[in-house]
Amino acid sequence: MSFAETNQIDIAVIKETTFGVLPTTPTMKSIGITSESLSHGVETTDSNTIRSDRKSLDAVVVGANPSGSVSFELSTENLNEDLLEGVFAHSFYGKAQGSVTSTVTADTIEIAGVTDLTKRFTAGEFVQIVGSTLNTGSLEILSLTDTVLTMNDTLATETVDGNVRWVIDPGDLSIASGKINSAALYDFTTLVEVGMCITLVGFTTSTNNKVVTVSAVTATDLTVEETLTDEVAASGYLVPFAFLKDGVTKKSFSIERINNDVGAYTLFRGMTPSQMTLTFTSKAIITGSMEFIGADLVSTDVDTSAFHSTLVAAPTNESLNATSDVASLSIDNTPVVFGTTLISEFNFTLNNNARGQSGIGVLGNAGVGFGFSAITGNLNMFFDGQTYYEKFINNTALSISVRSVGNDGESIAVYIPRLKIQQNPGGQATGVNADVMQNMTWKASVSATNDYQIMFQKSN
Description:
Blueprint: E1 9-15, E2 27-30, E3 35-36, E4 42-46, E5 59-64, E6 67-73, H1 81-88, E7 95-103, E8 108-111, E9 126-129, E10 139-144, E11 148-151, E12 158-167, E13 174-176, E14 179-181, E15 197-201, E16 211-217, E17 221-224, E18 237-240, E19 242-245, E20 253-259, E21 264-281, E22 287-293, E23 302-303, E24 310-312, E25 326-331, E26 334-335, E27 343-351, E28 355-357, E29 367-369, E30 374-382, H2 387-393, E31 398-405, E32 411-423, E33 437-444, E34 455-458
Parallel strand pairs: 2-24
Antiparallel strand pairs: 1-2, 1-20, 3-6, 4-5, 6-22, 7-8, 7-12, 8-11, 9-10, 9-12, 10-11, 13-14, 14-17, 15-16, 15-18, 16-17, 19-34, 20-21, 21-22, 21-23, 21-27, 25-26, 25-31, 27-30, 28-29, 30-33, 31-32, 32-33, 32-34
């Protein structure tokens, strides 16, 4: 007899159109995991019927709460973008992934499977079709609907397996005194925010073609944390990272557990991301987890036949580590000098305070509600002075950003524009033969200048 092994399990996901309903002929994407704890969560109540023989009459099923988590190692691709949009309750702005069809007659771009383009792009912006051979360069959006981009350009008909990305291409950029200038043809304040990561492309000075982090914005200038070489009448353009913010648009998923070795398939429906954690620890791989609350799992969701029509294999990108793959970490928009300021761990948790919504006649949850989006975390540092203890005592707000880059050159970044330290022990002596540490807890909040508490970014 064959017994199932963990090394032969796939966890596959697909975004639902209707809560708790598996899409027809689903193409499901396997995700890379290190463990999972998805469970039906049956709730029973013992009968209180009195019997003279003292026996229990029955244990009655009165409810169910499908839930659980998946744990993973961070790479540039193994964080499923649909799941990220689910936990952030937001759509990736500046990016649409899918099969792209361009038609000459209508001058339009359609992205298969994408039905929220108005949340990803804005009329008047420029985009590029990545992988296109016939429609290269920057294309201006004339107007758009949730499913179609109408361009202010003549397009050649083609199908591209790639993505459409947002670019800033005024055609008049220059670099002076470390600032990127647009000569007032663009109002940068309507396009760019502090904390955003941008890739510079096509500049004459090769060392300028890199990822930068915006530290200040005016209508005509972008100040960045990195060093740039002056360049007049530059031919380059800017590719902002696609970004998510903590939002309000819930998304649910069907998740299939596949025990490949014994041919067992289990389908969890209506699984709504309730929480995500990422942890950067010295001398370790960057790890994370995502938790879910779902709708149901019924007898037909347990089978010996697959629920997916097509299964896309999990990405195989190299896992990122906190030693060589953290490209930058900034506090208050000032880059930390690694080795001078010594950080042992940084982590954050986005908690949607989700709850299952149950009612009479429903086994499981009819919906999932969200409460506050609570962003909390830890910042553990070697104690080297009173700077952060004073910020704790004075209840001073600060910002944190961290960016990691993979061996494929792609980047992932997190920016928290306003947080306050909740606990900081200062320079305590915890025992002999030990370093003095300040292991701080913090909590983020919204500010007058930001409409979000956390921004997750991915290179375009």
